[in-house]
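We were asked to recover a plausible sequence for a given structure. The inputs and outputs are reproduced exactly as logged, with field labels preserved.

PROBLEM: sequence recovery
POSITIONS: 468
GIVEN STRUCTURE:
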């Protein structure tokens, strides 16, 4: 990084002093990985999970695809002010999951705050319009339901809303089973039917959408606005659910890693500032150090500090740079890319800054350093999962595939390469292939439903009940 700076040695030394807290050694990353493995065990415990920062939620998904799945499915993806309805076809002969058609529906603001019954009637109406307009009436298609709000999943088709987020505050939904509310809304209409319903977390959808193409995919990971991961855990270790045989997919909710203070030794002053200014201080500490919602703000705070200390922009910060959120994470990408000098010039000028070539290169090093820390911390977390799987199965060597989604992984020029290189160092006995997910929340939701259907004759989905 220092070699890329064509400036004085004294400036390099000064800058290094600011960047050093972000530069984690391999030994420190190994320690972080070990801490996460410890917290994963706590989260799986029958009694210890209540206070565990890493929640390790059972998903009741009992298997990954085996390549024999086929058929037509509906998928419903609800996670904000819009939701999508999809018709998905799984083709066994071609090992493909095809999105046949989709429709985006808007949820009016007043409906986000009104009675829950009104919201689910609206969803059922949009689903009915889609079924009718695509000539799917008369078919009773299974449905994969991605509901991106905090839920406690009881079974594959039973999920209790813990609390609304993202501006929703519909009455009569918190503490209720959202699958039941959807089915009741469909029954009130009475003009169409759906088959079995499978609740799907977006990380699980990512894993399952990749799993049909590669049957060794047993991990799903998202590194975008937020971050999370899931993986296939041995049932005997899932103490919160009855049953000893086979495996179950666990939604780790690893964004909460560090909420008990276990990452204080690697939190920088800027991480603390980001956390304190957030809507949920003290919550999702790990996510705030590595995900797209926060990376740009960490860079901005560092640039402000360098400017205040008169090592950047001749000590003159612009009003825009001083504004929280003005340096978005997607602004980082052009600074790191080798071929975007014009974009860099445009960004710095748009921020109202008077800059020279040395300033631009300092900003680039700051972006690179904070992005690199994100990738390396993500690698430490992924290594914790892969090493756990390998130890669970008593293998000398594990070969597995990780399904990945998220804008940071997909759009950052170096993120994927650095993550992969670091995880090889932290999990040397694991050979990991990375596969980018294609529409995990749509195709993945259908695939979860398809696998649940394949297992249904043995009643696998209902044999394992939560222990509370």
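RECOVERED SEQUENCE:
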């Amino acid at each position: 990084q220092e070699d890329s700076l064509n400036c004085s040695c004294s400036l390099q030394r000064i800058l290094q002093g600011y960047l050093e807290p972000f530069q984690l050694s391999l030994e420190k990353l190994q320690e972080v990985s070990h801490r996460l493995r410890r917290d994963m065990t706590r989260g799986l415990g029958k009694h210890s999970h209540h206070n565990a920062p890493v929640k390790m939620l059972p998903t009741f998904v009992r298997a990954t695809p085996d390549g024999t799945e086929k058929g037509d499915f509906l998928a419903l993806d609800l996670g904000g002010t819009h939701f999508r309805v999809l018709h998905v076809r799984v083709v066994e002969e071609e090992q493909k999951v095809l999105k046949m058609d989709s429709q985006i529906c808007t949820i009016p603001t007043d409906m986000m705050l009104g009675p829950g019954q009104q919201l689910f009637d609206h969803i059922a109406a949009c689903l009915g319009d889609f079924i009718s307009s695509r000539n799917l009436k008369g078919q009773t298609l299974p449905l994969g339901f991605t509901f991106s709000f905090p839920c406690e999943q009881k079974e594959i088709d039973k999920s209790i809303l813990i609390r609304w987020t993202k501006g929703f505050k519909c009455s009569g939904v918190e503490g209720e089973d959202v699958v039941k509310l959807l089915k009741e809304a469909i029954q009130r209409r009475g003009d169409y039917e759906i088959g079995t319903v499978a609740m799907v977390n977006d990380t699980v959808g990512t894993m399952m959408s990749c799993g049909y193409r590669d049957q060794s995919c047993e991990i799903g990971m998202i590194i975008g606005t937020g971050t999370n991961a899931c993986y296939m855990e041995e049932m005997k270790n899932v103490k919160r659910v009855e049953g000893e045989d086979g495996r179950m997919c666990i939604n780790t909710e690893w964004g909460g890693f560090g909420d008990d203070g276990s990452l204080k030794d690697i939190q920088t002053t800027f991480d603390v500032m980001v956390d304190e200014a957030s809507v949920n201080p003290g919550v999702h500490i790990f996510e705030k150090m590595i995900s797209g919602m926060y990376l740009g703000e960490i860079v901005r705070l560092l640039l402000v500090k360098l400017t205040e200390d008169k090592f950047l922009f001749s000590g003159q910060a612009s009003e825009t740079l001083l504004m929280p959120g003005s340096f978005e994470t997607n602004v980082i990408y052009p600074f790191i890319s080798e071929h975007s000098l014009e974009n860099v010039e445009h960004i710095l000028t748009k921020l109202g800054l008077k800059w020279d070539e040395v300033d631009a290169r300092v900003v680039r090093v700051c972006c690179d350093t904070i992005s690199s820390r994100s990738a390396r911390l993500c690698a430490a977390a992924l290594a914790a999962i892969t090493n756990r799987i390998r130890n669970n199965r008593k293998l000398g060597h594990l070969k597995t595939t990780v399904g990945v989604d998220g804008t940071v992984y997909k759009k950052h020029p170096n993120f994927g390469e650095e993550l992969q290189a670091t995880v090889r160092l932290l999990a040397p006995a694991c050979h990991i292939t990375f596969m980018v997910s294609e529409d995990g929340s749509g195709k993945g939701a259908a695939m979860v439903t398809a696998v649940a259907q394949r297992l249904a004759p043995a009643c696998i989905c209902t044999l394992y009940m939560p222990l509370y």
